[in-house]
């Protein structure tokens, strides 16, 4: 893709973010105050001038009371009962090296979802809050190693390990493997 072309997913995501802000009746300034993200960054994301980072999307999901999967499913086509591997939407945070595949067929009425995630070596993503307070997450390491910090507790996970946690505060995901890490994330909304 040429650098002057807008990624179609980023364009749909930007439009949905603008819709959500409008639905809430907030100005860019009000959203900036609620999310802790600058007005200019919010504006650029809504206009798809930049691809939003995972951290930015997490902050906006927290303000809007959605999981990242819910938000991303809102910019995809009408959900099917079965999503074949080739049709599973993939989103990438090009800044951090985080690649996220939505494995579960999306549906707004379902509470659970499966996500395959990949982090490049050295990736370090900190979320200052959960997208939804009390969100339950199961992290199963398929390949590599991952350090996960929930509030003040650090967990070192290796291939085959699985961590279950309820997310109430800040979390951090650090790729501890020189070859990167691939894991399955099961998310259950409260």
From TrEMBL:
<dbReference type="InterPro" id="IPR010982">
    <property type="entry name" value="Lambda_DNA-bd_dom_sf"/>
</dbReference>
<dbReference type="InterPro" id="IPR001387">
    <property type="entry name" value="Cro/C1-type_HTH"/>
</dbReference>
<feature type="domain" description="HTH cro/C1-type">
    <location>
        <begin position="17"/>
        <end position="71"/>
    </location>
</feature>
<dbReference type="GO" id="GO:0005829">
    <property type="term" value="C:cytosol"/>
</dbReference>
<dbReference type="InterPro" id="IPR011051">
    <property type="entry name" value="RmlC_Cupin_sf"/>
</dbReference>
<keyword id="KW-0238">DNA-binding</keyword>
<dbReference type="GO" id="GO:0003677">
    <property type="term" value="F:DNA binding"/>
</dbReference>
<dbReference type="InterPro" id="IPR050807">
    <property type="entry name" value="TransReg_Diox_bact_type"/>
</dbReference>
<dbReference type="Pfam" id="PF13560">
    <property type="entry name" value="HTH_31"/>
</dbReference>
<dbReference type="GO" id="GO:0003700">
    <property type="term" value="F:DNA-binding transcription factor activity"/>
</dbReference>
<protein>
    <submittedName>
        <fullName>Transcriptional regulator with XRE-family HTH domain</fullName>
    </submittedName>
</protein>
<dbReference type="InterPro" id="IPR014710">
    <property type="entry name" value="RmlC-like_jellyroll"/>
</dbReference>
